[in-house]
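A student in our group prepared the protein record below, which I am reviewing. Thanks in advance; the entry in question is below.
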Amino acid sequence: MRRSRIKEKRLYPRIAQKIPLKVAADGYGFITATKNVSCIGAYCHIKKYVPPFTKVKIRLTLPVAGTSRKVYHLDCKGVIVRSEDEKKGGFNIAIFFNEINEAQRKTICKYVNQFLPNNPPKLQKRL
């Protein structure tokens, strides 16, 4: 029996990569790593509950492909769109990058694209 290919419904694909991330919200600072990331957001784990719709400052540290010494530090702002209680302690949060410049978004897209298959499925037009 053949496995059917699951179609990605997201406009921007996400990848499961651990990327160093600093999140600042309501006077608290968290140093963590992404569980997954896309051009428009990130999913990560933090120790303290921060409710959805909280505005956050973000510093994402992207390694440059092919080297372990060079990194890009991207500073932007976002909003928490989901906060989930983690059974082992802490919280998983989804962050939407709502204040990011186009050059930064392109840098993240370039990073994400290096982990995608050579011929990703074409995105279907949303109705």
